[in-house]
Design a protein that fits this description.
By secondary structure, the chain is of the alpha/beta class. The protein has helices at 2-28, 55-63, 84-92, 113-124, 143-148, 171-192, 208-213, 229-236, 260-271, 280-305, 310-334, 338-364; strands spanning 42-48, 71-78, 98-103, 129-132, 137-138, 155-159, 162-164, 204-207, 241-244, 252-254. The chain has a seven-stranded mixed sheet, with helices on both faces. A three-stranded mixed sheet has the order 5-10-7.
């Protein structure tokens, strides 16, 4: 039991150190003091695949942007078999700044259809700033103008915040609300500390020159995901600077998964590239965090078998609760959404453990559907 407790203690210390690091990053998050008044041309690429339930709302939100500069919206239909192509055709036909193109149904099968769709759109883009938007999102009216204003003082990459669009007040969607807040804050912490290990496509922008300098998705096309974080890691090595858009008014709403099966599949897909990052230290950190969640899942069994004292198990649980709450509370204050933490913290805490323990092996063995 002593050896088990010692090993678990090390893993817990790694987890605590990581969460305190994120909390430090969140506390350092500040709005940029100087905002750019320039209005460079912007190209937003939106990949879509069978998004008939969300596409129209996303397009309407993009059409309502208050950006005073030139901007184009490039919609790339990726072999949809529902009404998505017709929705796009009808919406784009009388809007000169909207373009619609399709990847044919008989196109070659690739590992990452989303990267192919983004590349297809970027190849036609003429903006100085490239931005991405997922097809199930609702960007606020100020989204483009707020994001572009952060490209100051040599900043070449800007990550923006996102939130879940709560459709129903149930456990599944409440969990995703606080889970998405956690991911958003981790991204913000990484960007603030100039170490962008995470990024997300629903609110991401980078200079066209930088994207082309690194060869776009060269070297990443065979990976299932990574169209956001791995591309940002690749570009950050050549960027003059990176920035985080700490603007609560610019938070992009993103649709939740409506079924548990969909949520588990999504998380498995996100975890599928866990061993493919260039940073070996980051991979080791991910492994430690994964084993910590596995331990959290099996700890009650260890207590029942008498392999670890219940007081020690409960003590470790209390430590996780405290550091998780501290991190989420500090970040929620920055984004003015503390009610999410109060309402959903323990729901999120309980579901996060089995979901995280399952996601890594599921991603490795490709137990998911794109």
């Amino acid at each position: 039991m002593i050896y088990i407790a010692f090993l678990v203690g090390i893993i817990v210390l790694v987890y605590v150190a990581m969460m305190l690091y994120f909390t430090y990053g969140v506390l350092k998050m500040r709005p940029l003091q100087q905002l750019s008044l320039a209005t460079p041309p912007v190209s937003v690429v939106v990949p879509l695949h069978n998004e008939e339930n969300y596409a129209l709302k996303t397009l309407e939100c993009l059409a309502a942007q208050d950006y005073t500069g030139q901007f184009q919206i490039i919609c790339v239909d990726d072999r949809s078999t529902d009404a998505t192509p017709q929705i796009l055709a009808d919406f784009c036909q009388d809007k000169p700044n909207f373009q619609f193109l399709s990847i044919p149904l008989d196109a070659e099968t690739v590992s990452s259809p989303k990267k192919r769709a983004l590349e297809t759109g970027f190849n036609l883009a003429d903006g100085e700033i490239f931005m991405t938007m997922d097809a199930d999102c609702e960007p606020p009216m100020v989204w483009i103008s707020s994001m572009v204003s952060k490209f100051v003082d040599g900043i070449d990459i800007v990550q923006g915040p996102k939130r879940i669009l709560l459709k129903e007040n149930n456990i599944l969607q409440n969990y995703q609300t606080i889970d998405t807040l956690g991911f958003t804050l981790i991204e913000g912490a990484f960007f603030t500390l100039n170490n962008p290990m995470l990024a997300s496509a629903p609110s991401l922008g980078y200079r066209r020159e930088l994207y082309e300098k690194v060869g776009g998705f060269d070297g990443l096309r065979e990976l299932v995901s990574g169209d956001d974080d791995m591309l940002v890691q690749k570009m950050s090595e050549h960027a003059q600077g990176i920035g985080y858009n700490l603007d609560p008014e610019a938070q992009v709403g993103t649709a939740p998964m409506l079924t548990w099966k969909g949520l588990f599949s999504q998380r498995a897909r996100w975890a599928s590239n866990g061993a493919e990052y260039d940073s070996k230290l980051y991979i080791i950190l991910l492994l430690c965090v994964y084993f910590f969640f596995v331990w959290c899942l099996i700890a009650p069994l260890l207590g029942i078998l008498g392999w670890m004292s219940w007081s020690l198990i409960i003590g470790f649980y209390v430590i996780k609760i405290l550091v998780d709450f501290l991190f989420l509370w500090c970040g929620a204050r920055k984004l003015q959404c503390t009610q999410i933490v109060f309402r959903n913290f323990f729901v999120g805490w309980l579901i996060q453990i089995p979901l995280s323990a399952w996601a890594a092996p599921a991603g490795h063995f490709k137990w998911y559907k794109w």
